[in-house]
Specification:
Layout: H1 2-7, H2 18-25, H3 30-44, H4 50-70, H5 76-99, H6 101-121, H7 129-141, H8 152-165, H9 171-188, H10 196-208, H11 212-215, H12 222-225, H13 264-285, H14 291-304, H15 312-327
Helix pairs in contact: 3-5, 4-5, 4-7, 5-6, 7-8, 7-9, 8-9, 8-10, 9-10, 9-13, 10-13, 10-14, 13-15, 14-15
Length: 351
């Protein structure tokens, strides 16, 4: 990193156009770009100069456009590079947003609205990665624990709408859905709010991972009815019971965001991630009175499938989740009662 710092100029002017920023950043990797942006901000930030503040507000917009352009790709290298750029530039986007919070709020709101308008044109299709990545940026820049926030609340509603409306048809849809579920987990980790759309989606993942003849008599919640055409989508093609898979180190890959065949490795990882997410949401919702009712449909699916074709550690991990969900049944429901109030004392008159 020190060598990189020495190779680059120490001073930069604030770009007044997006093309000027591209001239600074083009042909450089994410590490170089982060240093360039850092030096642009440090060389031009003066708390008492309103002109510089306006220029840096434009820089915030240009960087968002830069990020948007680099997460659009059809190959693994482009997707990885896009995520690396986001990782390196996020701290500077945070700093710029807090230099002018009102401008940052307006810019992000406008972008989310544009993305939502595009989504409305085809409500059954998952939006592109350039839309999903702004949900991640919003959670990094703005607070997610507020009861109501002009940016993060809108993003949370948008993500819920995507999970509820979009159909699961292929590998990319599953990957994007799990990505959104993870983002909603980040959005609700502090507030511990209940997100029904996530539970529905994870229920759908368990549903398409279960053989049809085992679950045909089980009533499904509405989201599962939207994937009737995709039944058995995540059923293993072969017996994988001899594989050694570590449930705690299974992650999604950049290649999962590129269309392709659904191999058994992908199917196992998807099921594991869904189980891990269910465990996290179960921990968040344990304080709710209706927590068992929320997870009961998923528990029925887990009980109906023995998962014999899956690696032993995966099966053990699923059985542990099943036990944890069964324990929720012991939670006693409290009756809704009117709050007790002290009776008003009678006013007594003296003799």
């Amino acid at each position: 990193m020190e060598n990189i710092r020495k190779e680059l100029p120490y001073t930069y002017k604030v770009p007044e156009k997006f093309e000027e920023l591209q001239e600074y950043l083009q042909n450089y990797n994410a590490d170089y770009q982060s240093i360039i942006v850092d030096r642009i901000i440090k060389c031009n930030h003066c708390p008492t100069n309103n002109t510089d503040e306006g220029k840096l507000s434009n820089l915030f917009l240009f960087l968002l456009q830069h990020v948007n352009n680099h997460v659009v790709g059809n190959d693994v290298g482009s997707i990885v590079n896009g995520f690396q750029i986001i990782d390196r530039l996020s701290p500077f986007l945070y700093d710029l947003a807090h230099l002018n919070p009102q401008n940052a709020k307006s810019v992000i709101q406008r972008i989310i609205k544009e993305k939502h308008d595009d989504f409305e044109e085809d409500k059954k299709k998952y939006p592109g990665l350039d839309t999903l990545i702004f949900f991640k940026l919003a959670s990094l820049i703005f607070p997610t624990s507020d009861f109501r926030h002009p940016v993060t609340t809108a993003c949370a509603i948008f993500m819920s709408e995507i999970l509820f409306r979009c159909r699961i048809k292929n590998k990319i849809d599953i990957s994007k859905g799990l990505f959104i579920c993870t983002l909603i987990l980040e959005y609700t980790v502090l507030s511990k709010r209940f997100a029904p759309c996530v539970i529905n989606f994870l229920h759908a993942i368990i549903y398409v991972s279960s053989p049809k003849h085992l679950i045909q008599d089980i009533k499904t919640i509405p989201i599962s009815k939207r994937i009737k055409h995709s039944e058995n989508l995540l059923i293993l093609d072969e017996d994988r019971s001899k594989l050694d898979v570590n449930p705690s180190s299974s992650y999604m890959k950049a290649s999962d965001l590129i269309d392709g065949p659904l191999d058994d490795d992908f199917k196992i990882r998807v099921l594991l991630i869904a189980v891990n997410l269910l465990g996290e949401f179960k921990n968040h919702l344990e304080e709710l009175e209706a927590v068992y009712s929320i997870f009961e449909p998923i528990l029925k699916l887990l009980k109906s499938n023995s998962f014999d074709k899956y690696p032993p550690k995966v099966k053990k991990h699923i059985m542990q989740l099943r036990k944890d969900l069964e324990k929720l049944k012991n939670k006693k429901l409290k009756y809704i009662m009117v709050e007790k109030k002290k009776p008003k004392p009678l006013r007594l008159y003296g003799p």
